[in-house]
Design a protein that fits this description.
The chain is an alpha+beta fold. Helix content is about 20%, strand content about 25%. The protein has 3 helices and 10 strands. The strands form 2 sheets. Strands 1-2-8-5-10-4-3 form a 7-stranded mixed β-sheet. Helix 1 packs across helix 3 and helix 2 packs antiparallel against helix 3. The protein is globular, with a radius of gyration of 17 Å. The relative contact order is 0.22.
Length: about 210
């Protein structure tokens, strides 16, 4: 059953989902008992429509560790050739990934990022879970977005919500150094067999290259 992400979470679980209207609001992830922060924004609809119309093998597909200042040039190299009418859309995507990368790296005080751009056609992480990281930024640029909800001791989620389309979410992981895990879990939406192809950006902080 969907859960409105603006609704106060159940106090029994103690998890809270904050929303913000600017990247500066990502800092709320450090608030006590905060499980996630969603940047609610109006994405470039022309860019999202351009992405939706690409063939699966045209979507950027990459897993790499790099410095935040290397993101723009690297992501641009992954982009397909486009006609003049779609140059602005491609530019928006590159600039958006770059801006999110820099904001997340600054927030996490991380000199490097593990960047993933994943075209996904399966259920991927189909079970509700919490990632084994300090924190993770996820943004779905195409297809259904990440689902999240409050779990019990058995990691069962009775109600869930979906992140608004094109909106980034930062989620605390099991290695968060502050207060204990909040009970907020997430998963990939089940799409296997539907013919849908999602495009997902995932960012993790990396503090030493030897740990990457």
């Amino acid at each position: 059953m969907p859960l409105d992400h603006k609704t106060s979470p159940q106090p029994d679980f103690g998890a809270t989902v904050f929303s913000c209207d600017a990247m500066s609001g990502f800092s709320a992830i450090g608030a006590p008992r905060c499980g996630a922060v969603i940047y609610e924004r109006a994405s470039d609809q022309a860019a999202l429509q351009w992405l939706a119309g690409l063939a699966g093998d045209e979507l950027p597909d990459e897993r790499i560790v790099l410095r935040p200042d290397e993101v723009a040039a690297h992501v641009l190299r992954l982009m397909p050739e486009v006609s003049a009418e779609h140059i602005a859309s491609r530019r928006w995507l590159v600039e958006d990934i770059t801006a999110l990368s820099k904001a997340f790296a600054t927030l996490m005080e991380a000199p490097y990022l593990r960047l993933r751009l994943d075209p996904i056609t399966t259920n991927a992480c189909r079970k509700f879970h919490i990632d084994a990281v300090t924190a993770r930024l996820v943004c779905t640029y195409r297809g259904q977005s990440t689902q999240y909800g409050l779990g019990n001791a058995a990691r069962e989620v009775a109600q869930y919500a979906s992140v608004p389309a094109g909106c980034p979410i930062i989620l605390r992981g099991t290695k968060w150094p502050g207060d204990a895990p909040t009970g907020l879990l997430h998963r990939s939406p089940p799409i296997e067999g539907t013919g849908e192809t999602r495009l997902l950006l995932v960012l993790d902080p990396v503090y030493r290259l030897e740990d990457a």
